[in-house]
Amino acid sequence: MGEDRSSLPILSAMQLHRILALFAYGIAPAVAAGAITIDHADSFGAGVIVGVAVFLVNQGLTRNRYPLHLMPLASVIVRGLSPVIGAGIGILVLDAAGHSIAAEALVAPIVGAWAVTAFAAFAKAPLESARPIRIALIGSPYIAVGLDQELKMAKFRSYKVVGWIADKTGPTTEPGDGPRRLGALDQVRQVVVTHQVDLLVHSSRPAAGDGDAPFPSRLELFERVATDCLDTKVKLIEVGQLYEELLGHVPLGQSNAAWFQYLLHPRYRPGSSFSKRTFDILIGGTMLIMLSPFLAAFALAVKLTDGGPVFYRQRRVGERGREFELVKLRSMRVDSEDRGPAWAAADDDRITKVGKLMRRLHVDEMPQLINILRGEMTLVGPRPERQEIISRLERQLVYYDRRHLVKPGLAGWAQARCGYGGSDEGTGWKLCHDLFYLKHRSMYFDALILIENVRVSVSGKVQFGVRAPQKEFIIGEVEVG
User: Fold this and answer.
1) Which residues sit opposite 161 in a β-bridge?
2) CATH number, domain at 188?
3) In terms of domains, do 339 and 419 share one?
4) Is the whole-model pTM more than 0.85?
5) How far is it, in rounded angstroms, from Cα 317 to Cα 326?
6) Are residues 312 and 436 in the same domain?
7) pLDDT tens across 190-218, in order?
8) Is 65 inside a domain boundary?
């Protein structure tokens, strides 16, 4: 442990990123709101109270349990609401203390907080890219390559997979363009220091391409890293946990039954079913009333197109495996499934002209608000599927049946991130996200997901296709077909 450490940075990249995020989204807007309040209200105490309230609200709404960094629209709305809610709380506290302040006086502090947040967020991104968090994966080189591919696909420039630590050479990568072997496990300290590794990620099991290569046990891995690296700034995380926190899905290929221990823990709280049902009725009912004229117009267009039925009814599997009749506006020809069930595709000739527009706007799904009011579905949850397809998928995708622990939804985390699966592989990719929702579900997360589904529906960028790395490198992939 006598290597020269004088050239190592005082702050690790992970520490720097945390400081930048805290300043950009917490301290800077709070200070701006507080300072402007002092100027407008001519009261130092009022400025402190408003500033502290803005800071605390921001920290509460942006807690790390939810991947706001994967939700552009929801993130902007949450960041924008923080100064508004904080200023409102500040007014209430000041009123309770006998120091009234006009609500108009807080308009400038709120706008100032927005401006500072926008500028700080704009400045933060290049700083993080210039000093990315350097990752080395211990275990499977194939997982290291897959992780590198997913980070590039997600355009995460603040993370860089340097390489892997294992005896196995692994897949061939282009020189200077991807991760490479950095050394063996007994060289972990040398690797960390030489390559300035910020984060060690360990895989739980070999990947498909690893074959019979030696794979370190968890105990051996922890003992080696603890012995060699406890005095360094490097951190250690399991690959499944990294995928959940950073990429918002559960890597099926690195998961086993122990993952569900979290759901069985005495402190696990999935949220109130009463609150969720109330939310479904209030929001679902309001949406149905507001959308009724549009639904009526599209229903008439469907009828005039070919004279067939307006609605398409189909048996789907819901919570606890109970079947129900799902209702949609018909977007395909009447004879679309004469040869049996088949995945829809972007260029599917079974879809009518009106149906293409409805699918583009997701209007065809809106009659399912009736299923929600009946209690058969919920606003946010995994999408329901047909029994004949489920029977096949349950044989091919591990834990697929766990989706039925909750009610199926009109919108969902998998829809926001993956769009329409369109294949067994795509369905496996969506399952990775459905399991993430199963673990992290709450009313707040539901609200964030609804916002993101609106963005996706308007943009139409992920309606079809699987936004995933190449099949052989998908860490969450399990055997299909």
Assistant:
1) 135
2) 3.40.50.720
3) yes
4) yes
5) 9
6) yes
7) 999 999 999 999 987 777 666 666 677 88
8) yes
